[in-house]
From TrEMBL:
UniProt keyword list: Cell membrane, Hydrolase, Membrane, Transferase, Transmembrane, Transmembrane helix
Tree of life domain: Bacteria
TM spans (from-to): 49-67, 74-91, 103-121, 133-152, 183-205, 217-234
GO MF annotation terms: hydrolase activity; phosphotransferase activity, phosphate group as acceptor
Domain Sulfatase N-terminal: residue ranges: 286-559
Keyword Transmembrane: yes
InterPro entries found in the cross-reference section: Alkaline_phosphatase_core_sf, PEA_transf_C, PEA_transferase, Sulfatase_N
Organism annotation: Phascolarctobacterium faecium
Protein known as: Membrane-associated metal-dependent hydrolase
Main location: membrane
Topology in the lipid bilayer: Multi-pass membrane protein
GO BP terms: lipopolysaccharide core region biosynthetic process
Length: 600
């Protein structure tokens, strides 16, 4: 009797399981078809509803795959989405949900295809040669999903094209510093735990596949299932709402734009040839100093409680010195910032980057000798407009002799002053000095003598680097004042770091602390006597709002270069400059300065 009841229960279970699978097969197909038709099935306004929908979809796929042990792989595909369960609701919840949904659908469908390939490549002798390839795809899928999830957990944001470009445009050491800053030991332990889970379940999956009955499925059902997944992969990869594929597209487009900028160099110089026939301006030497990662909120000259900038504090009110109160960076990464700051391209015009003349090209066309002195690495993993612009300079000094291998340098920024002092005499020159500044890791940016704040906090280390930068600028200022024909010095930082929150300057976690930068200028008595009108206008604009992609227009005006297509309303040295926090932006136009809590 006991055996009979057991057999009946087993029969009922098999019947129910079969019907259950058929029901979910139909439901799963309907969900996919609705998605392919572009319905709002996955584009819903509440995160929890979205999570439930996509999570159920993965369950259905697992059941239909006749391998419940393979369910873990779907969970891995959905890790970024699952992390949203632990996040607070944000203002961009709908956009966030849609982005994660499309990525999860893309990853889920790709995982389904890999599963079928893996099963058939191991089940049939003729296909076993494909098994290692499919296994590699499976591992890559796991690593990708885990990396995305880990990044989101660490930063509460998705990887963007800017994130990828920042890594491509730096070098091994700088990338390492970036990862050390943004990923904690807890994140690493979690990653290792997931790898262990993956290895264990991969072994179980391999054993389980031997008893799977996928080969008993009707060929039509298999074909429909695989086709639906292929179509879903294609559709979800083509939509701009899939942050993963969209990020790859944006990265590719940006790199292509950089290549075009380099390729169009000769065309730009031909256009600038017209400057040769224009009246020549007076002789003079101008120095443009570019800082790195400097947050004005940690400078005592701007009101910080620690005496981090004693020299700037003492000189900011002297004759000929101008300290600007409301300067912002146009982005939070060096290459995007300097690509705009040093060319005619900015956030507010529609000029194609490849047609945008650089400040070096214009200075040379106006008969200035150009000098580039840098403590930064010359090339990263990718040639950028910044390296192209620097390479156009007639005289170059690179203290960091490495080419894309490391940003570690045996020279502190003070060594740049020694180079300045040894320059030959120029009648007309533009000298660009690019500091290592306050780039992380902060403790590597200053000698031990400047270790004033000795706590282990990253804030202490950052403040020490600010103190050293102030000392460097004091020495540099003394050196440039003594240059024959010196006219003026302009200093700005490429961007800032959000040190207090420990966020660095990652654009995907943007805060306005990453954009508030110092800007100051000094002009000789000779310059003030020759151009009192320019000096008066600059002084009038010391409290005006400004983004550093407009340095190009401002510097050309200061140097009195008669550039025919100068956007005068973008120059702090022009009387028509009327920009405010309302119309100025940062992060390449994505954020208005009026959103800054500290803006007027």
């Amino acid at each position: 009797m006991h055996i009979m009841i057991k057999n009946k229960l087993l029969l009922m279970k098999n019947i129910f399981t079969k019907q259950f699978r058929h029901f979910f097969l139909i439901l799963f197909a309907v969900l996919l078809i609705l998605q392919l038709l572009g319905s709002g099935t996955f584009i819903i306004t509440k995160t929890k509803q979205l999570l439930f929908t996509v999570f159920i979809t993965s369950c259905l796929t697992s059941i239909f795959s006749y391998s419940r042990i393979y369910f873990y792989n779907y969970l891995l595909a959905l890790l970024p989405l699952l992390s949203l369960l632990f996040c607070k609701t944000a203002a961009d919840e709908v956009i966030t949900s849609v982005n994660m949904a499309y990525y999860s659908i893309f990853s889920l469908s790709f995982t389904n295809i890999i599963f079928f390939l893996y099963y058939y490549s191991t089940a049939y002798k003729t296909l076993r040669l494909l098994s290692p390839v499919v296994l590699l795809l499976q591992i890559c899928t796991f690593l990708l999903s885990t990396a995305v999830w880990g990044y989101y957990t660490s930063s509460q944001s998705f990887p963007t094209a800017t994130t990828i470009l920042a890594l491509l445009q730096t070098n091994v050491s700088e990338s390492s510093e970036y990862l050390q800053t943004n990923f904690t030991g807890q994140t690493l332990l979690l990653f290792l735990f997931l790898v262990l889970v993956y290895l264990v379940f991969s072994l179980l999956l391999h054993l389980r596949l031997k008893s799977c009955r996928i080969n008993n499925m009707p060929p039509v059902a298999i074909a429909v299932f695989v086709l639906l997944n292929l179509l879903t992969v294609y559709k979800s990869s083509m939509t701009p709402d899939n942050f993963f594929t969209n990020t790859l597209r944006e990265t590719r487009n940006a790199l292509a734009q950089y290549d075009n900028f380099s390729a169009q160099k000769n065309a730009r110089q031909k256009i600038l040839g017209s400057l040769k026939s224009l009246p020549k301006n007076a002789a003079g030497v101008y120095v443009l100093v570019i800082g790195e990662s400097q947050n004005k909120g940690h400078m005592s000259a701007y009101g910080y409680h620690r005496p981090t900038t004693p020299w700037l504090q003492s000189i900011k009110n002297q004759h000929g010195f101008l300290l600007f109160d409301n300067a912002y960076s146009c982005h939070s990464h060096t290459v995007p910032v300097l690509t705009y700051a040093l060319t005619a391209k900015n956030q507010y015009n529609t000029l194609p980057l490849e047609q945008a003349a650089s400040i070096i090209e214009i200075a040379q066309a106006a008969d200035f000798h150009t000098v580039w002195i840098s403590n930064q690495v010359k090339y990263g993993a990718w040639d950028t407009p910044v390296s192209v612009i620097a390479d156009q300079s007639q005289t170059q000094y690179w203290l960091n002799g490495h080419l894309g291998e490391t940003t570690q340098t045996t020279h502190f920024d003070l060594s740049l002053v020694d180079v300045l002092k040894k320059l030959p005499v120029f009648d007309k020159a533009l000298i660009v000095v690019h500091l290592m500044g306050n780039h992380g890791s902060y403790e590597e940016r200053y000698p031990h003598a400047f270790n004033r704040w000795t706590g282990k906090s990253h804030i202490d280390k950052y403040d020490n680097s600010i103190l050293y930068n102030d000392f460097v600028m004091k020495q540099l200022f003394s050196a440039v004042k003594d240059l024959p024909n010196f006219q003026g010095m302009i200093y700005f930082s490429d961007h800032a770091d959000d040190v207090d929150a420990g966020l660095g300057h990652d654009a995907s976690r943007f805060t306005f602390d990453m954009a508030r930068i110092p800007l100051y200028m000094y002009f000789s008595d000779n310059y003030i006597q020759k151009y009192p009108h320019t000096m008066a206008i600059l002084k009038k604009h010391t409290s005006a709002y400004f983004t550093n992609d407009l340095i190009f227009d401002t510097l050309i005006n200061i140097m009195q270069i008669p550039f025919p297509v100068l956007e005068e309303t973008n120059s702090l040295a022009d009387k028509n400059y009327k920009n405010t926090s309302t119309n100025l932006k940062t992060l390449y136009g994505k954020k208005s300065l009026s959103e800054d809590p500290f803006a007027d």
